[in-house]
Design a protein that fits this description.
It is a single chain. The protein folds into 2 domains: about 160 residues, Ferritin, CATH 1.20.1260; about 160 residues, no CATH class. It has 13 helices and no strands.
Amino acid sequence: MLPGLAARRRFADLTEQEILALAISSEEDDARIYRSYAQQLRADYPASAAVFDAMAAEEDGHRQALIDRHRMRFGDVIPLIRREHVAGFYARKPVWLVRNLGLEKIRAQAAAMEQEAGAFYRLAASHATDAQTRKLLGDLAAAEAGHESMAATLEAEHLAGEARSDEDRAAHRQFILTWVQPGLAGLMDGSVSTLAPIFATAFATHDSATTFLVGLAASVGAGISMGFTEAAHDDGVLSGRGSPVKRGLASGVMTALGGLGHALPYLIADFWTATVVAVMVVFVELWAIAWIQNRFMETPFLRAVFQVVLGGALVFASGVLIGAG
């Protein structure tokens, strides 16, 4: 057995005092998480930050009620027991892992937290023998179950009128700037710029293995170059485009994928079969780029098709002509 697991207690073995202590520490942790969400959102989404401030205050009220009950039954000394001390107990992600969650993911995370807390209080109430303790834990279970409606009430209060839609539009815009725009640029660069070297090599050598190696090198090299370029040229502070690491990752990965799409078919040993498959992949890639431009960048579909397909066709033709010549 792993040492960390051996040191954990089973929930069924906890005393009522330890259950109360666990509930107190859990409410304190959740209040801190909600306040960290509020702090993270305050600059860009002040109305949603107000919702999480109110939810943190609600958790503080629960914690105080639990402390009062512990003081009445067991005195002022509260045992040190936390979630990680109990086997199988639900855990919360460290703050640094959720710091950069988007607005909708934060809302979903908060809803999951309330559901887990409600399940804990229902289980805790079933283990309590003292009537008042059992009542308190049952009331808290009901309160956690009702937090979804409370969150809706708070959102109606703090996100009235255009506030919610304004925040949603801002979150969508940030998603476009941080992920879609650099990813699309990378996909276009990887798909189009590697057409010429890959198909020039293909028609010059008529060898699938050589063509694949050239395509692999061109795709990976282009991905690394685009990723570093995107991350280095703008730190996102003034432009508001978000984390340079995220943008560099999106650009680099999509650039590499764009080139690998029509390089991988050359793993097929038969040259002409590989080439036909590669051409079909190129066709799908170019139409996918046009769709993304239309869907996320609001580029008219026909214009996007004309720009991407025409440009890709010219690069493809140049590669074939150079290789065949």
